[in-house]
Design a protein that fits this description.
Blueprint: E1 4-8, H1 12-24, E2 28-32, H2 35-42, E3 50-53, H3 62-70, E4 80-84, H4 89-98, E5 102-105, H5 110-120
Parallel strand pairs: 1-2, 1-3, 3-4, 4-5
Helix pairs in contact: 1-5, 2-3, 3-4
């Protein structure tokens, strides 16, 4: 059974890049355009093994999304990877405090994303 990943980003191009890289490795990828959209998807009943989110998005950013996901009992321990252009230590600390499992800075290599996904969800 392949694992399902939720990818959240306001950039259609970035969602396509993430989806293509992960689907080549056999993962199922569902996408959302912002944090609020992602919460609606998560509450839809489908089980996600990993969540990948950008930080800077309209409606709800990735750090607020991470904090909201951690409040959902079924996703309390689901790995959340923040994939963003933000590289400041302060932002990383905010993400960690919100409950992020990992942090990848864009631009990224598909192999890097796949390696992190494999590491957090064996």
């Amino acid at each position: 059974m392949s694992k399902t990943i939720l990818a959240v980003d306001d950039s259609v191009t970035m969602l396509q890049t993430i989806s293509l890289a992960l689907e080549k490795e056999g993962y199922n990828v569902v996408t959302a355009k912002d944090g609020m959209d992602a919460l609606n998807v998560l509450k839809g009943g489908e089980k996600f093994h990993v969540i990948i989110t950008d930080v800077n998005m309209p409606v709800m950013d990735g750090i607020a999304l991470t904090a909201e996901i951690r409040k959902l009992s079924q996703y309390k321990f689901t790995p959340i990877i923040i994939l963003t252009t933000e590289s400041q230590a302060g932002k990383k600390d905010e993400g960690k405090q919100a409950g992020a499992t990992g942090w990848i800075v864009k631009p990224f290599k598909p192999e890097q994303l796949i390696a992190v996904v494999r590491r957090v969800s064996p």
